[in-house]
């Protein structure tokens, strides 16, 4: 899910909300086994530099920080 707002013709601000689940399973050769899973909500705040714009899209560069909540 993302939202883009134009601050000027060349620069935009893009906010995203990303959900992901990560995990692993371990076997310790006769000593036991285990599984863990972590769920994250990441919220990147990105500056977007529009290199070329057309009516159907274009090329752009995106950079910025991201915050993740577990």
Describe the overall structure.
The chain is mainly beta and 70 residues long. 0% of the residues lie in helices and 77% in strands. It has strands spanning 2-6, 11-16, 18-27, 33-54, 57-63, 66-69. A hairpin with a 5-residue loop joins strand 3 and strand 4 (33-54). The radius of gyration is 19 Å and the shape is elongated.
Sum up the structure in keywords.
elongated; 0% helix; mainly beta; single chain; 77% strand; six-stranded antiparallel sheet; 70 residues
Task: Outline the fold blueprint.
Elements: E1 2-6, E2 11-16, E3 18-27, E4 33-54, E5 57-63, E6 66-69
Antiparallel strand pairs: 1-2, 2-4, 3-4, 4-5, 4-6
Q: SSE order, as H and E?
A: EEEEEE
What percentage of residues falls in helices of 4 or more residues? Answer: under 10%
Q: Tell me the major beta sheet.
A: 6 strands, antiparallel
Number of contiguous helices:
0
How large, in whole angstroms, is the Cα Rg?
19 Å
Structural class call reads mainly beta
Number of strands: 6
Could you say which overall geometry the principal axes of the C-alpha atoms support? elongated
Beta percentage is over 45%
End-to-end gap: 18 Å
Low-confidence segments, ≥5 residues, pLDDT <50? none
The overall average pLDDT, rounded, is: 89
Summarize the structure.
With 70 residues, the chain is mostly beta strands. 0% of the residues lie in helices and 77% in strands. It has strands at 2-6, 11-16, 18-27, 33-54, 57-63, 66-69.
């Amino acid at each position: 899910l993302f939202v883009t707002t134009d601050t000027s013709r060349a620069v935009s601000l893009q906010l995203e909300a990303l959900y992901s689940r990560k995990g692993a399973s371990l076997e310790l050769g006769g000593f036991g086994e285990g599984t863990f899973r972590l769920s994250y909500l990441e919220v990147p705040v990105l500056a977007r530099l529009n290199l070329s714009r057309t009516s159907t899209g274009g090329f752009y560069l995106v950079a910025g920080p991201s915050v993740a909540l577990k």
